[in-house]
Each structure stands twice: as C-alpha cells, then as structure tokens.
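FORM 12-B: Structure-to-Sequence Request
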C-alpha cells in the first residue's frame, strides 16, 4: 500500500521529473520541477485553486514516483521524452505526427541531384526548408530539374558513365545525360549552382532567360517550344510570388500564436526561412481543459521542437511563458548554435504575431462549425433514427447484405457503424457454406447465425473488457441491426436472434420501385422518413456501404475462380504450375498467345506439359 504522507516527506528539494500513476498503474501525468519537494507536495494541498482538471487528476493518483536530475534542463528533456513515450491522459498533448519535407541538393556528389527528403541529416548535402506542403516541394523539384536539365537517376557517376543507354529524360530534353559524358562535370556544376541560386530566391535571371527563349522560339515559329518556355516561365513566376518577403534581415524564425477555449486549442506557426514566409501550419492541442494560455503555449514549444529536425534562430511568441531561459538553453543545445525566444511588443514583428493569432482563432472557429456539422451527420443522425423507432440509445449499428450471380459464389457482408461513422476494422466477409443456389434468405440466416454464435462463444471465454480489446467485431453486439430489405429480411434476422435468445432491435431498409430507400420496416410496420433528414441520409450511406462491400468481395472471388477454372482444366496443370504460369506470363491472354517453346521457358513447365497447354488453347487449329 502506497503511503502518501511518508512518500511526500521523502521528496528531495532537487530538480527532476515526477510521474503520477492511477490504480491500474497507468501513467496519467508527467511533470518537471526545479524543486521536487515543493512541486509534488503542492498537488496534495487543499483549496489552492489548481483548477477542476488537476483536481480530477489528483483524485485518481494511486502512487507517484520521481527521477532526480542534475539540472532543470535535464528535467525538461526527460519530461519531454516520457510524455512522448507514455502520452499521459492529463498532459496537454500536441496532436501532430507530421514530418516536414526538405529539398536536398547532393552537392557532395560529382554530379549532384535535387531530391525530396523528410529528414535533415548531417551529410555533405545542402538542405532547403522545411516546407509545409509536400506537393509544392515536389513541384519545385520537378521545375528545377526541367529548368536546369539535372539528373534524377541513382547511377553512380562518373563510375557508371557509358555503361547503359541514356534514359527517357534525355530523349524528352529534361536531362543533359551526364551518364553518357554529354556534359562535363564543370558544365553540370554551373547548372547546379544556378539551381542553388533559384532555391535561395534569386528568380530574376531565370525569368529573363525563359522570356528570351520564349520570344526567340515564337519568332522562329517554333510554337511548341514557345509554349514549353511559357509554361516554365509561369511556373517560376508562381513560385516567386509565393515567397513573400517578411523580414529584411533574411533570418530563420518561427512566429507562434494560440487560440484557446474551454476544451480545445489551436496553435498557428508561420515558418520564415531566409527572411521569406515559406508556409504556415496549425496544430491541435488536446487535454487543455483547466490550463491557461501560457501553459498551453509552453507545452507546444517543448513538444513540437523536441520532434522537428530544424530549429530556427528565433521563436517569436504571442505572450510570455515560464522557463524561457531553460528552453533557450535546450533549443541552443539541439540546434548547435544560439536560439532566442522573444515576445515582440511593437512594430512589424508584433503585427506578424497578431496575424498568426487571428489565423489560429479563425481555424478554431471553423473547426467548431465543422465539428458541429459532422456531429449532425453522425451522432445527430443516429439520434434521429433512435427517436424514430423508439430506442433509447444507439451507438453501434450493423448492416448485412448478400451478393451472388444466379447462386454462384454466395457471399455475405457485415459492416459496422459506431456513432454514425463506419468502423472498417470491424467489417467482416462471409463465404456461404450451406447454400448452393440463389436463396438470399437462407444465405442471410447462415451469415447471422455464424456471426452471433461466434460472438457468444467469445463472450464465454473472456470478460467484457478483455473481449473488446482482443476481438472487437464479433464480441461487441450491436444496438441496432439494419437489413438490406423489408419484412422478409427482418423476419429472418428476428428468427435467428430468437433461436439464440438475443434481444436486439432489427430494422429493414425499405426501397421503392426505383430501388431508392424510402423508409424503415420496424415492429411489423413501415416507418416513413423525411428524405431531407440526416437520419435518412445516414441510412442510405449504410445501405450503399453494405452493398458495396458485398459486391467487392463477390467480384474478387469471381475473378479468382475464373483464373483457376481456365488453367486447372488443362491436364498436368495443378496449383503450383498455374501460379508459375501466371508469374511468368502475367495474364491468360499472354499464355494463349505463347507458342510451345515459349511455354517451355517456364522452369516448372516441362515440354510435354507445354504441348498440352498449347493444344488446350488451340484445339480448333490442331484438329483442323
């Protein structure tokens, strides 16, 4: 038994990290302190205005532990690592798994390339970025390669020069082919230097050159060439316009501002590189309830810059935060050069921070509207359906459908919606075992029986919490079953549930003469639905999804069966030889077109089998 009074007495007055555990020993909070003795004891004092979120967390603490560090800086690093590893429930968390793209120029190679990279390594290459748009980076790289005819291949040059023919890029005039020694290393380097100028923002020389070439081609009536240069000119101009100058000093800095309400926070960051605004990005912070603005901003800075490979020279924040000196030391150590954290009070810098704040507030308000609309489409729609049939609550819905063609390859589908959204990990396919002909009712009975018997067997094996964790889709029974049909399908489902002594509401999704959903069949009567309602739209989406899932499964079985039926009718061709033929020829048509010698090239196919295959596909010709 953990004795809080005794353990609190033992706390040292030193810097370190403290870790709070709940009764299941899960880590629910991680914090750092200059003085562990004072900080940890403060959680267990009464009436000190900690806020409802911290009060709630304290009631769940079953024990705590701590790690002493030599300095507050070490405590900061350790705190960050532990939060990242354990994602504690009560720590404010940065919701971000993005990595930002760079443009990498391999200047250490004899014939450098311009590449897309997700990380910045300490190699002999030059990096530009990070950028916020991967698409923009790829477009820029493509443009640079076209403008300066740089290679995109992985050949080891000059070692491999002349060993292979030039690639397609040379023939379409998008590479100078250094692999063939068509350009010297010095000439190629000149083009690379021009590309580096371009990446540094010097666009005027290339714009003038492209304009000259465009005019020249037009005067010579080489209109295709003129169009090509015009398109390149427009592309460069577009890139140039996106690079808005924001700082005459040409330094790297991030502008950071926050919008916060009771339950959500959005942080907006403007990325400025070499004095140019190269992009902006917003980030969501979770578990913010009870935290003030400086605390959320502090948590963002610690978590974001612990994970990003590039740290600018300066961070400009919207307002003062704690631990600025410690954070500067930590960021300086990570970057390898001095980093400053500033809170501008006037001038253009203050206006940039203000602009970032307005953007964050706009994102937060737009997200609220989006969430509201999404809840109407999902949770709101489910509530409409529940009210329509008189059910208290619906969380999980399952829908079923049968697919076949004249009884061939009968299959069933089970799709799952939770809180109005598809839960695809719980979708299941059934290949019908007991029905050979086109009998949808019998097929549906088999599917439902298998589904619920399987679920009941799992329920016997494990307690409920373990079942949800281990099995999920079959163990968790739905609050509502939706059948793709009317009275007949509903009665089949009720019959199965009755036999298994399971009580679950069942609705049929009734269609009109034009095969459009018109209402629900429930408790022996048809219930009309307002076609403009979110509930009706959700039912239609569920019906379409069940049908799509069943059709796709049936189609995949059908295509496999067709491949097998053709080749397995040939004497001497079993599963292994069938696979070998399909690996070698890729399609049935190629096998049909092959002569005996070509068929015998397949290692697994001896000459007499090759002859049998050829005769099988050319019986009419051989007989004739």
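FORM 12-B RESPONSE
SEQUENCE OUT:
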């Amino acid at each position: 038994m953990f004795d809080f009074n005794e353990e609190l007495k033992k706390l040292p007055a030193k810097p370190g990290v403290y870790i709070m555990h709940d009764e299941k020993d899960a880590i629910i909070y991680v914090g750092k302190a200059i003085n562990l003795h004072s900080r940890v004891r403060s959680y267990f004092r009464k009436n000190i205005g900690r806020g409802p979120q911290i009060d709630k967390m304290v009631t769940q603490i079953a024990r705590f532990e701590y790690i002493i560090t030599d300095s507050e800086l070490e405590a900061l690093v350790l705190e960050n690592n532990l939060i990242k590893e354990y994602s504690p429930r009560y720590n404010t968390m940065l919701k971000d798994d993005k990595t930002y793209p760079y443009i990498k120029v391999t200047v250490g190679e004899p014939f450098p390339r311009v590449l897309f990279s997700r990380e910045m390594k300490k190699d002999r290459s030059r990096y530009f970025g990070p950028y916020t748009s991967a698409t923009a980076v790829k477009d820029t790289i493509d443009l640079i390669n076209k403008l300066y005819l740089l290679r995109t291949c992985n050949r080891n040059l000059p070692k491999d020069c002349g060993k292979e023919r030039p690639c397609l890029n040379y023939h379409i005039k998008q590479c100078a082919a250094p692999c063939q020694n068509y350009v010297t290393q010095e000439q190629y380097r000149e083009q690379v230097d021009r590309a580096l100028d371009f990446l540094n923002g010097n666009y005027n020389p290339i714009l003038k050159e492209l304009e000259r070439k465009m005019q020249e081609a037009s005067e010579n009536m080489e209109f295709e060439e003129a169009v090509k240069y015009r398109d390149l000119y427009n592309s460069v101009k577009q890139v140039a316009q996106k690079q808005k100058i924001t700082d005459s000093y040409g330094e790297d800095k991030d502008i950071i501002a926050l919008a916060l309400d009771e339950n959500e926070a959005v942080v907006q960051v403007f990325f400025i590189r070499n004095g140019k605004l190269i992009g902006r990005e917003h980030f969501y912070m979770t578990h913010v309830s009870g935290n003030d603005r400086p605390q959320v901003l502090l948590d963002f800075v610690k978590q974001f810059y612990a994970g990003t490979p590039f740290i600018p020279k300066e961070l400009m924040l919207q307002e003062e935060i704690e631990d600025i000196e410690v954070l500067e030391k930590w960021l300086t150590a990570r970057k390898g050069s001095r980093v400053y954290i500033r809170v501008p009070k006037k001038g253009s810098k203050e206006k940039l921070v203000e602009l970032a704040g307005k953007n964050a507030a706009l994102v937060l308000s737009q997200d609220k509207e989006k969430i509201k609309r999404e809840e109407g489409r999902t949770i709101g729609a489910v509530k409409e359906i529940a009210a329509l049939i008189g059910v208290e609550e619906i969380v999980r819905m399952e829908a079923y459908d049968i697919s076949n063609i004249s009884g061939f390859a009968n299959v069933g589908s089970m799709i799952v919606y939770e809180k109005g959204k598809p839960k695809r990990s719980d979708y299941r396919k059934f290949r019908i075992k007991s029905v050979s002909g086109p009998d949808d009712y019998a097929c549906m009975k088999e599917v439902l029986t298998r589904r619920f018997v399987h679920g009941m067997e799992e329920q016997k094996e494990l307690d409920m919490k373990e079942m949800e964790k281990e099995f999920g889709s079959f163990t968790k029974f739905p609050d509502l079953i939706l059948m793709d049909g009317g009275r007949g399908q509903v009665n089949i489902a009720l019959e199965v549930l009755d036999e298994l002594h399971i009580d679950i509401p069942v609705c049929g999704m009734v269609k009109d003469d034009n095969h459009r959903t018109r209402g629900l069949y429930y408790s022996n009567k048809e219930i009309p639905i307002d076609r403009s309602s979110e509930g009706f739209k959700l039912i239609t989406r569920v019906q379409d999804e069940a049908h799509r899932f069943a059709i796709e499964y049936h189609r995949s079985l059908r295509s496999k069966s067709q491949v097998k039926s053709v080749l397995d009718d040939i004497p001497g061709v079993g599963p292994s030889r069938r696979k070998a033929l399909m690996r070698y020829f890729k399609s049935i048509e190629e096998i049909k077109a092959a002569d005996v010698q070509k068929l015998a090239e397949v290692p697994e196919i001896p000459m007499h089998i090759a002859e049998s295959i050829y005769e099988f596909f050319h019986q009419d010709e051989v007989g004739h």
